[in-house]
Every structure is written in C-alpha cells, then in structure tokens.
C-alpha cells in the first residue's frame, strides 16, 4: 500500500464510510467507520456508533498512520447516520412542511428585495446577487458564498429580518419602482 | 480538582514579520502545484479532486468543532496518555491548544500540544 500521507483525496475517498482498522505507531490500532480524512494532514476521523453506548469519535493523526485495512463496507444508512451525528446543527428540512418552507422562502426573498438586494428563486434555493445561495430553511447559517464580505452582509441582513426574529410584524414595503 | 502547576515554558508566538504564509510549511508543500498528487493535468479531473478535497476538509473542520470544549483522551508517543479539554487547532494541524491538561507532572492549565507527538485523540459525544 502506498504511504497513507501520500495518497490523493480520491484514494482517501475510497475509505470513507467503510468500517476499517487503522494501524498506527507504537503498535496502536483503532477500529471504526471513516467519516472523513483531512486532506491537509491525512488524519483519519473514525466514528463508533454502537447502539448501546454513546457515539465515540477517534481522530488518528496522519503522520502516525502506518496501515488502513477495510473490514466491511458501509451503506447509505450508515452514511446518513454518521452525517446526522456530525451535522446535528442543521435542522433537517424534512421536519418543515413544503408550505412552511415556501412561506419562509417568500419571507426571506421579500426582506432581501426590500433591502435592494437582487434575489431570484431557483426551486428550493434563493440565488442572491449571482454570488450567494441560500438553501432551506433560509437561516443565516444556510448561506453559502465565495465572497466573505457579501456573506457577512447578507447574514447580518437575515438576522435582522423582523419576520423571522420572533416578531409577528410584517415589513412595510418602502420600495419605489426600482 | 487538582491544583494547576505553574507554567513551565511559554510557547513561541507567531512570526512577527511575515503575513503568516510560510512557503516551508507542510501545508504549502502539500498544496503547491509542483507537489500535488493529482495524476492528470486535465481540468475536469482537477475539479473533481478539488471538490473531494473541499468536502473532506469541511467534514474534518466540523469534527474539530465537535471536539471543541470536550474532554479528550490524547494518546501520545511512548505509550503516554493524557486527558485535556480541546480548545483549538491551527490551520495546518500542527498544534492543538488544550486546557486543564492532566500530565504526569500535574495539571497544566493551558498547553500547546504538538500534533507530531500525538497519535490519536478520542472523545465521546
């Protein structure tokens, strides 16, 4: 096997979601399912999701890895279980009904337009100024953008949206024909 | 709770004269085009590899976020084990900032662990 740290992201990707045994320096070995491999340090993140115990995560530093053996393959189910452990901060959008999502999307779109920000609906996404995308459920944390300044501007705008910050007030449109 | 011991040695601060970008850092060596491990030079292959790289790094950063403020078991070289509260990592994963580190010499209130001395970190969710 090629040296672990010399592998490419494609090669590391082969191990992700597999149940593996990682052999490391000083005769240590670790078993678990691979959640990810850090491309900068080649460190392996292993998750153990036994039903009886609390989930445990082990991070094996890339420089210490001597060998990785696949014990068994993962499935869609194991992948989504792992992801739910790590991406717990995301509200799963399926808990919100389509109507509720539509209503929130409308509210955010109107707020942005009232603030002179060009925004277009693209299915479930909101495309802002051809630079930023807001995905369901349209909270400040759901924005993605390559430009840090635009991201910060739009996020603080969303935080100040009176409709979604707990108030029942509707914003009066102050837009003229612009 | 054990009494913290005095600080034995302060860590070196960042370089005062540079902008933080060190061409000799392992990260630059890993990512600079002349040493990238991608096999082909065609742009479609690079895009896919870059996408994987970004996704893997993002998941790793989320792991570090999850580890923050948790009590972590560090397995170090020479069969040494220590427990501490994980604070932060630097961008190249070369140093970990930890608090309340239980060492054989006592509890260090704040410490910087060199990642090169660490084999693994374990924590429970």
TrEMBL record, chain A:
Keyword check for Kinase: no
Alphabetized UniProt keyword annotations: Cytoplasm, mRNA processing, mRNA splicing, Nucleus, Phosphoprotein
Subcellular localization, as worded in the UniProt entry: Cytoplasm; Nucleus, Gem; Nucleus, Nucleoplasm
InterPro entries xref list: AD, Gemin6, Gemin6_C, Gemin6_Sm-like_dom
GO cellular component terms, semicolon-separated: Gemini of Cajal bodies; SMN complex
Gene3D superfamilies to which the protein is assigned, alphabetical: 2.30.30.100
GO term, biological process aspect, one: spliceosomal complex assembly
Superkingdom of this protein's organism: Eukaryota
Record carries keyword Nucleus: yes
Chief place where the protein resides: cytoplasm
Role played: The SMN complex catalyzes the assembly of small nuclear ribonucleoproteins (snRNPs), the building blocks of the spliceosome, and thereby plays an important role in the splicing of cellular pre-mRNAs. Most spliceosomal snRNPs contain a common set of Sm proteins SNRPB, SNRPD1, SNRPD2, SNRPD3, SNRPE, SNRPF and SNRPG that assemble in a heptameric protein ring on the Sm site of the small nuclear RNA to form the core snRNP (Sm core).
Subunit structure: Part of the core SMN complex that contains SMN1, GEMIN2/SIP1, DDX20/GEMIN3, GEMIN4, GEMIN5, GEMIN6, GEMIN7, GEMIN8 and STRAP/UNRIP. Part of the SMN-Sm complex that contains SMN1, GEMIN2/SIP1, DDX20/GEMIN3, GEMIN4, GEMIN5, GEMIN6, GEMIN7, GEMIN8, STRAP/UNRIP and the Sm proteins SNRPB, SNRPD1, SNRPD2, SNRPD3, SNRPE, SNRPF and SNRPG. Interacts with GEMIN7; the interaction is direct. Interacts with GEMIN8; the interaction is direct. Interacts with SNRPB, SNRPD2, SNRPD3 and SNRPE; the interaction is direct.
Record's protein name: Gem-associated protein 6
The species this protein was found in: Danio rerio
Automatic annotation (TrEMBL), chain B:
One cellular component term from this protein's GO annotations in UniProt: Sm-like protein family complex
Biological process annotations from GO: spliceosomal snRNP assembly
SUZ-C domain sequence ranges: 1-25
Any one Pfam family match given in the protein's UniProt record, by short name: Gemin7
Lineage: Eukaryota, Metazoa, Chordata, Craniata, Vertebrata
Protein name: Gem (nuclear organelle)-associated protein 7
Superkingdom in the source lineage: Eukaryota
Organism: Danio rerio (Zebrafish)
Annotated CDD domains: Gemin7
Region of interest (Disordered), residue spans: 1-26
């Amino acid at each position: 096997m090629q040296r672990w740290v010399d592998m490419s992201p494609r090669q590391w990707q082969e191990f992700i979601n597999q149940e593996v045994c990682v052999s490391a320096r000083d005769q240590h070995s670790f078993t678990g399912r691979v959640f990810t491999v850090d491309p900068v340090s080649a460190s392996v993140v292993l998750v153990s999701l036994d039903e009886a115990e609390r989930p445990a995560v082990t991070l094996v530093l890339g420089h210490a890895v001597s060998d990785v053996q696949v014990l068994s393959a993962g499935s869609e189910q194991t992948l989504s279980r792992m992801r739910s452990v790590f991406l717990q901060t995301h509200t799963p959008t399926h808990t919100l009904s389509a109507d509720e999502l539509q209503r929130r999307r409308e509210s955010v779109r109107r707020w942005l337009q009232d603030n002179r920000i060009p925004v277009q609906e693209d299915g479930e996404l909101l495309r802002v100024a051809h630079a930023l995308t807001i995905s369901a459920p349209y909270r400040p944390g759901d924005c993605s953008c390559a430009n840090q300044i635009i991201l910060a501007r739009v996020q603080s705008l969303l935080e100040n949206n009176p409709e979604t910050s707990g108030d029942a007030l509707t914003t009066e449109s102050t837009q003229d024909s612009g | 709770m054990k009494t913290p011991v005095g600080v034995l040695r302060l860590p070196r601060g960042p370089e005062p004269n540079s902008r933080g970008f060190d061409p000799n850092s392992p990260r630059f060596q890993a990512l600079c085009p002349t040493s990238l491990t991608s096999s082909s030079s065609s742009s479609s292959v690079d895009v896919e590899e870059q996408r994987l790289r970004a996704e893997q790094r993002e998941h790793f950063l989320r792991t570090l976020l999850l580890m923050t403020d948790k009590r972590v078991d560090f397995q170090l070289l020479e069969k040494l084990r220590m427990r501490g509260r994980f604070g932060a990592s630097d961008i190249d994963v070369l140093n970990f900032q930890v608090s309340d580190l239980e060492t054989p010499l006592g509890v260090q209130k704040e410490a910087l662990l060199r990642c090169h001395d660490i084999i693994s970190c374990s924590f429970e969710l």
